[in-house]
Amino acid sequence: MLTPAFHFRIPEDFIRVIDEHSQHFAAVLEGHEGGKPVEITSPVSMSTLDIICETAMGVKIHAHDNSGSDYVRAAYDVGASLIERMVKPWHWFDIFYTVSAEGRRYSKNLDTLHSFTRKVIEKRKAEMLAERETNTETSNNKEDTGLKKRRPFLDLLLETHLEDSQLLPLEGIREEVDTFVFEGHDTTPMGVSWTLCLLAENPDIQAKVHQGLDDIFGNDNDGSITQDDLSKMKYIERCIKEAQRLYPSVPLIARFVNQDLMIFTNVTYRDRDVFPDPEIYNPDRCLSKNVAARNPFAYIPFSAGPRNCIGQKFALVEPKIMVA
After folding, report:
1. Where are the domains of the chain?
2. First-to-final CA distance of the chain
3. Number of Cβ atoms within 10 Å of the Cβ of 54
4. C-beta of residue 48 within 8 angstroms of C-beta of residue 318
5. What UniProt keywords are attached to this protein's entry (predicted)?
6. Which of 107, 189, 269, 274 gives a 20 to 30 Å CA spacing to 54?
7. Is residue 29 within 8 Å of 38, Cβ to Cβ?
8. 118-157 pLDDT, tens per residue?
């Protein structure tokens, strides 16, 4: 039911949104010209939050311009609280955590996020019901590979809800949307930030990226990125994947198994038998011929199998545009 929202043609409809916010991100960085170090994680995160909210919920939150808003602040504080709880054993037990100052702050921020999402869902549901009553929907709204009208992830879930509210209640939609928003703005910034950092540390590789973009766009620095442009960005894609190998955005993958087992993905990604000179940033490890020569489970940044990340195609399109 959820997979069609991230069909291989669907991201094409969101390229304009990603490109728009990426241009804003680039403008923010240009404001820091002068040779001084810039902490880029925050502006990257603001851009990815803008992108995921618009593509998942169909709403513009303008995070860059409203970084102090309750929703934006809560989105980042929740992530910080989760990390803090993981590293503090005395916070692992709900009976203690819920009464602590940190636990109460976490609950308050979570309520802020849930309340915002519920309001968006209720508003969009009312709009869709009104559209049905007035027969304003056209064939362009149909879900197929010829999709022409950009539709947020929320619309697909609401369509299922309107057909069978028992199958997918509104609270279930809220959970799915919140999950995608959190994952979409929490992991991608790390991937983009590490890629940019590694490119800065390796000017020879950065020069290849620049040359590749010049070959695609020429002197058209202000042109919008298209699906065809993305398909030509092979080297940037390899740079992003290699950055994910060295610094995984998702450091752990939890699964229920019959017997306790722990596989350290970070160690696996630096196995010398699989990745020679593993500490070296080498995008050519991701060439098709090299990937084919490795075990398919040697590199799984989006997990693997039937429960892999359904947003992985989107998660590669977004950083490609932002890095470009």
Report:
1. 35-184, 189-323
2. 32
3. 20
4. yes
5. Endoplasmic reticulum, Heme, Iron, Membrane, Metal-binding, Monooxygenase, Oxidoreductase
6. 107
7. yes
8. 999 999 999 999 988 886 555 455 554 444 456 788 988 9
Identify the DSSP state of 59: -
CA 157/CA 176 separation, integer angstroms = 9
Place of tokens 């910034």: 189
CB 132 within 8 A of CB 159: no
Alpha carbons 265 and 253: distance in angstroms, whole number:
9
DSSP structural state of residue 305: S
Instruction: Please enumerate in sequence order all residues whose Cβ is within 8 A of that of 46, keeping only pairs 6 or more positions apart, or say none.
Output: 25, 63, 64, 67, 72
| pLDDT tens digits for range 151-174 | 788 988 998 899 888 889 999 999
pTM of the complete model = 0.86
CA dist 322 and 19 (Å) reads: 7
Q: Which fold has domain 189-323?
A: Cytochrome p450 (1.10.630)
Interatomic CA distance for residues 161 and 149, integer angstroms = 20
Q: Is 239 annotated as a binding residue?
A: no
DSSP string for residues in 194-218? HHHHHHHH-HHHHHHHHHHHHHHHT
Q: For residues 128 and 173, what is the distance between their CA atoms, to the nearest angstrom?
A: 15
